[in-house]
Amino acid sequence: MSRIDGRTAEQLRPVTIQRNWSKHAEGSVLVSFGDTKVFCTASVTEGVPRWRRGSGEGWVTAEYAMLPRATNTRGDREAVRGKIGGRTHEISRLIGRSLRSVVDFKALGENTIVLDCDVLQADGGTRTAAITGAYVALADAVAWCHERKLIRAKAQPLTGTVAAISVGIVDGVPLTDLCYEEDVRAETDMNVVCTGDGRFVEVQGTAEGEPFSRDELNSLLDLAVAGCAQLDGAQRQALAAP
Amino acid sequence: MSRIDGRTAEQLRPVTIQRNWSKHAEGSVLVSFGDTKVFCTASVTEGVPRWRRGSGEGWVTAEYAMLPRATNTRGDREAVRGKIGGRTHEISRLIGRSLRSVVDFKALGENTIVLDCDVLQADGGTRTAAITGAYVALADAVAWCHERKLIRAKAQPLTGTVAAISVGIVDGVPLTDLCYEEDVRAETDMNVVCTGDGRFVEVQGTAEGEPFSRDELNSLLDLAVAGCAQLDGAQRQALAAP
Amino acid sequence: MSRIDGRTAEQLRPVTIQRNWSKHAEGSVLVSFGDTKVFCTASVTEGVPRWRRGSGEGWVTAEYAMLPRATNTRGDREAVRGKIGGRTHEISRLIGRSLRSVVDFKALGENTIVLDCDVLQADGGTRTAAITGAYVALADAVAWCHERKLIRAKAQPLTGTVAAISVGIVDGVPLTDLCYEEDVRAETDMNVVCTGDGRFVEVQGTAEGEPFSRDELNSLLDLAVAGCAQLDGAQRQALAAP
Amino acid sequence: MSRIDGRTAEQLRPVTIQRNWSKHAEGSVLVSFGDTKVFCTASVTEGVPRWRRGSGEGWVTAEYAMLPRATNTRGDREAVRGKIGGRTHEISRLIGRSLRSVVDFKALGENTIVLDCDVLQADGGTRTAAITGAYVALADAVAWCHERKLIRAKAQPLTGTVAAISVGIVDGVPLTDLCYEEDVRAETDMNVVCTGDGRFVEVQGTAEGEPFSRDELNSLLDLAVAGCAQLDGAQRQALAAP
Amino acid sequence: MSRIDGRTAEQLRPVTIQRNWSKHAEGSVLVSFGDTKVFCTASVTEGVPRWRRGSGEGWVTAEYAMLPRATNTRGDREAVRGKIGGRTHEISRLIGRSLRSVVDFKALGENTIVLDCDVLQADGGTRTAAITGAYVALADAVAWCHERKLIRAKAQPLTGTVAAISVGIVDGVPLTDLCYEEDVRAETDMNVVCTGDGRFVEVQGTAEGEPFSRDELNSLLDLAVAGCAQLDGAQRQALAAP
Amino acid sequence: MSRIDGRTAEQLRPVTIQRNWSKHAEGSVLVSFGDTKVFCTASVTEGVPRWRRGSGEGWVTAEYAMLPRATNTRGDREAVRGKIGGRTHEISRLIGRSLRSVVDFKALGENTIVLDCDVLQADGGTRTAAITGAYVALADAVAWCHERKLIRAKAQPLTGTVAAISVGIVDGVPLTDLCYEEDVRAETDMNVVCTGDGRFVEVQGTAEGEPFSRDELNSLLDLAVAGCAQLDGAQRQALAAP
């Protein structure tokens, strides 16, 4: 059985990671998972938020947003409505936690890196693309800090790599990297964030319809670990370029 | 090795579920997991939100909040700050999704039930206590609808039961139903929502420190399934009382 | 003629004042006037707001809120609407002023005590129950400060006691401690805050229908003074317990 | 003993009531109590708020605000801060209630009148000047409705007149119509709203320092009733002009 | 051809500039352009916003607002809606820029002057009346600073004068100082801010209907320069009074 | 004398207009003026805002925003701050007015087109690039409406073309299409919106330092008209592609 777009169950959509997409940001990446395109920038500032001052430790945080017409029908701007929606909050927090899981804040020193992930076009998996792209922008920003000597020469603020994939059960079949149409029809939807060594940073599974069994959960985790490993490769390849 | 409060790794804190705690609400429960106390009310209104009108289907949603001094140090009121925080949004959404997973909206008809979960005292596990208590309030509200004939006599809006527990890894040991002190020290923290038949509605695991392995994930899931089964018993017992 | 609930005109509803209702707050009270139940916590922090720093004087303030389903029909959460309503503002200010009337800020020193009064169940008189309960929570918080030596040993921050009662004219008859049904039907509604020695801190009378005469005003004040004296007794009794 | 500005204890400041101060509003008044100047407009719209539709009854409401530099030091604009402060809310509600006390909503029919009271210059007593001036603007707006035949020919939407005065105890002496300097020093501050026949619509007394006795309360009420009677005269005189 | 109100194309409406309209503000002006009336106050505070501290330079800013019933139909209060509208923002910024164009911030020293321009009655040209009146209030505030020795004796913070006029094309004819009815019908609308020596500070022309030609633009600029020269005279006359 | 980037005074930066940059929007353009890149989408919805219903006329509006790191230092998200800044409001309104100047709303029928202009990278002239790109997106959206028969076959909703350029005086020299560094140093800054036939839709000139003379204004207008003519060519060329 083949999927809507002809993929096999365990096949990711084409992934591209373009670095240096902005002339201003210390790290910037346009990441695409198929038709999902997210623009990730990493902004470095010296100093940390008030509650962390004097600790000798840095901070990493993230903000996620969708452009109003990233989706099939236009959504209101959150700035115009005057408040951040629950979904936006939730995803921003997820991205921030995921990246912090591979940061050694002592090594970063009292510097702050903000990851902005703005979805230019959405077709499912925007949060997982955002995490995957933001990691690369973060790595570039850390390199920039090294060049500017904002970080001690031997300090290694990144303790590993991190990537994320969505998996789900559609018509009873576990699939990886769901596009929007699959996502809408999924009975179970799971976002998994893994480090490059195959361990878990986040596992967020939700039954959209029927509750799911332990076996189904296991199948989804298998798909996710395999998908993240592929994304890890794509990240390394992107970062290996000059 | 025994825990801070003397429990074994797989032992829940004392659970109490007091029904009819309010004279106004169609369902109302004071639930406690140890020192965590959450007041859950279910409010029935005829009709549904605009986007669902004419569908013949009902709606269930939830709002979670903490009283300012539910915690050890006083937090600002979100109403005073003028916006809902990300954590509050996230938990409200989780509770709503969890309860909707056991609702047949056709059977509910065009009625709306809002679950308000207000934390009176917090000591870890507030969201899991909220889900567990809110289910009982929801069941009472559904019964109230039946008495008032808002629902067809044979309709069964509840397709199952649902409860939730937090589990985590503290000092390398998987523990169930973390209290606040354990939660703060946990390397991995997971909230699991199960139906009464032992299937999963939500699995949300987060590495607070080190990433976690597949084995650790499995241990946590085992604990969670066992914990939810116990909570399911407590719910049934509470609902069996007149 | 007897009232809806069988009371005489000058009879209060049953009053209960339960102390130590929370394990976190420095003072905490669940107060009930009949079916009206308000949870009052007193939170101590060292230091004072910016505009008072260096004055050597402390500060006491209050915030009042209703849980969404404290009333017969569910009200929107003010946090969700993103702003505090006029009624909430007004009552919070009233509670704060009432308590400050019995505080010697020099004796309190540069400490701040915040009284949170959250209505768990409403049946008329929520603001008067809140003031009455908050005074007891405040007294416990002051005692806590003494134990922790945040206040000088001989300092007496409380210069008196304070309690409040609602009175009103229903069907031409002055009544004390109105329940919700009486309150709705009252032609005149008055909230009176008295010190333990029978003097006035606040008198807020409002004609809901016909304007009221000087004689009617005098009858209401008589009822209020008598009611507050009874509440003063209930407060003393509660505080006398260990 | 004479007052700061040479008045006797029971003497009002000079009161002026200028009608037709705006070419747009259906009623408009510039009222001054000494240096306190409030611009009151009454705006008529056909129809009523949603919750009152079909009742055959009208509605009257009020909004109070201060210009930023109405006071001695500039205050932030509430529009810029993005929220209405508690004091503003409280006074707006007081003005609305006071005016509604003399309105027969059946006679008004399904029309809405909004009273805007904007303080151009403040020197104590802004809320009482606002009520006194707004009544005159309201009377003009009702006359305008009659001319336009928005109201039935014989209907009398105004059932009486209403005016307001502040009174207080300064250095132990009861005084009427406090100016700002007196207000700041007052031990007790009371705002009283009376109808033209000398009955009470609102009595709001607050101990700013020491609690006040029943005797003091009585003295203040005497002063207030006398002051309102004088204001009633000023209103009648203003309305008698063409 | 004569205009709605009988003026010639190049004739301004009657202009009045009343100084000292408030007892509190350091400068205060009630300016009228025909039926448009704007109350302008200048508030001096020592010190500057954070971003300018230590620069030795002062700051001037402005806030514009309309009273709700300044216009023919009542508008909602921006404070009640909880946000400043786009038009208000735009005009506040325009007024601030216009006044800053004639200020030498070094000469002003680290003082801040805020111009509040509140429209009491609107009949077209509110922003131009506001700029013209605010300049006079600013001049009075600068004089006040000199008297209080907040500014060095020889420092001249005002480097020139500034006034503003609206011009437009109505039924094909260029007209100056549009009243509301003309403004609504104008095909092109332009606001021009000039210094007393006839140079431009702001030129803001907008085609409301048909685009406008270079010739039309030139005719409008001619009218505007002539109008501003007249306003400059009115300002000088007002300031020449004691 | 050559400019920072080697251009002559009247030379535009390289202009690119890429159509169909999004798969969802009815019109979508990535426009760049040198390093300034703006993503413009046109979203069509059937129906119009409430105030326009039943008129038979359509509506066109615009929203402008900057991504947080579009600029050299990161700016706060307006959604996070909870309000739209004055500059954003002002530019959104300018873009909307500019596009409406070439729309025949009768021909558009009761359809609404929203133009979203999100700045991905800023280097001066973001509002002029936005207008220029949004026009092309609008044209594509109109064509889409024709294909879907939302517009009558012979109706021509676009009555002309529109483009915009910034011009300014830097070191006394009038220059066209200012980049950020020139913009910061400009004594006078002007944004001009022209139709394809060389007439004006908007002229917004501001003296940032010294006021500007009529001669300087004329030079700037000459540059602007020439620049817009070039942009008109670029738009036509882009739209001529399939």
From TrEMBL, chains A, B, C, D, E, F:
One of its GO terms (biological process) is rRNA catabolic process. Phosphate binds at R87, G125, T126, R127. GO terms for molecular function: 3'-5'-RNA exonuclease activity; tRNA binding; tRNA nucleotidyltransferase activity. Keywords: Nucleotidyltransferase, RNA-binding, rRNA processing, Transferase, tRNA processing, tRNA-binding. Residues 11-141, 161-226 form the Exoribonuclease phosphorolytic domain. It catalyses: tRNA(n+1) + phosphate = tRNA(n) + a ribonucleoside 5'-diphosphate. The keyword ATP-binding does not apply. Gene3D superfamilies: GHMP Kinase, N-terminal domain (3.30.230.70). Its EC number is 2.7.7.56. Phosphorolytic 3'-5' exoribonuclease that plays an important role in tRNA 3'-end maturation. Removes nucleotide residues following the 3'-CCA terminus of tRNAs; can also add nucleotides to the ends of RNA molecules by using nucleoside diphosphates as substrates, but this may not be physiologically important. Probably plays a role in initiation of 16S rRNA degradation (leading to ribosome degradation) during starvation. PANTHER family: EXOSOME COMPLEX COMPONENT, EXOSOME COMPLEX COMPONENT RRP41. This is Ribonuclease PH.
